[in-house]
Design goal:
The complex is a heterodimer. Chain A contains no helices and 12 strands. Chain A is mainly β. Chain A is globular and about 45 Å long. Chain B is mostly beta strands. Helices cover 0% and strands 51% of the residues of chain B. In chain B, strands 2, 4, 5, 6, 9, 10 and 11 form a 7-stranded mixed β-sheet that branches. The chains are: A mainly beta, B mainly beta.
Chain lengths: 113, 114
């Protein structure tokens, strides 16, 4: 069965520090990978997605993610975190032939002054 | 402004009562989805529809029902058979049903049981 693991339930980062959120997916051919962000009580907003090609993808709000097939990972990064980045982040995966997304359980990002 | 609207923002249900959550989109998308979100559980798929008059069960369909009579509308009914309905419900849509299609989300409805 498709699965996505986000190992960190909570992460606290100082404002201005770098950020990396981890995501691992279950092995499968041709994964389609997504990162979404959710502010409290709101819907989800797409940050970036990977389908093929360059394994380093750029997204909105200064985020980027790197696909590493050998590690089944798709980690999200940002070089300098802003207080407005505090939110919950979800990694999701879809596979060729399946039209639905499988989400991880999310990582809550807290930003300290 | 194109987007997805969900109403109401908060909904209260009494024991044994059915309630219906609304989801409307004006993006001209073919596919629509309903997710349930519980704290620490991520999003779980309830039902999805790839085209009008057709829908499929997701991972947790028991106690829920849907209809897709119009392209822009995909209402979700939480029936009395759903014993633990308190959750945040999110509707999404995508241009088509393919795995490459980005899903766009509405603002959600929080359902509470009285």
């Amino acid at each position: 069965a498709q699965s996505v693991t986000q190992p960190d339930i909570h992460i606290t980062v100082s404002e201005g520090a770098s950020l990396e959120l981890r995501c691992n997916y279950s092995y499968g051919a041709t994964p389609y990978l997504f990162w979404y962000v959710q502010s409290p009580g709101q819907g989800l907003q797409l940050l970036l997605k990977y389908f093929s090609g360059d394994t380093l993808v750029q997204g909105i709000k200064g985020f980027e993610a790197e696909f590493k097939r050998s590690q089944s990972s798709f980690n999200l990064r940002k070089p300098s975190v802003h207080w407005s980045d505090a939110a919950e982040y979800f990694c999701a995966v879809a596979y060729s032939g399946y039209s639905t997304l499988t989400f991880g359980k999310g990582t809550m990002l807290l930003v300290s002054p | 402004d194109g987007g997805i609207t969900q109403s109401p923002k908060y909904l209260f249900r009494k024991e044994g009562q059915n309630v219906t959550l609304s989801c409307e989109q004006n993006l001209n998308h073919d596919a629509m989805y309903w997710y349930r979100q519980d704290p620490g559980q991520g999003l779980r798929l309830i039902y999805y529809s790839q085209i009008v008059n057709d829908f499929q069960k997701g991972d947790i369909a028991e106690g829920y029902s849907v209809s897709r009579e119009k392209k822009e509308s995909f209402p979700l009914t939480v029936t009395s058979a759903q014993k633990n309905p308190t959750a945040f419900y999110l509707c999404a849509s995508s241009i088509g049903p393919g795995e490459q299609e980005t899903q766009y989300f509405g603002p959600g409805t929080r359902l509470l049981v009285l």
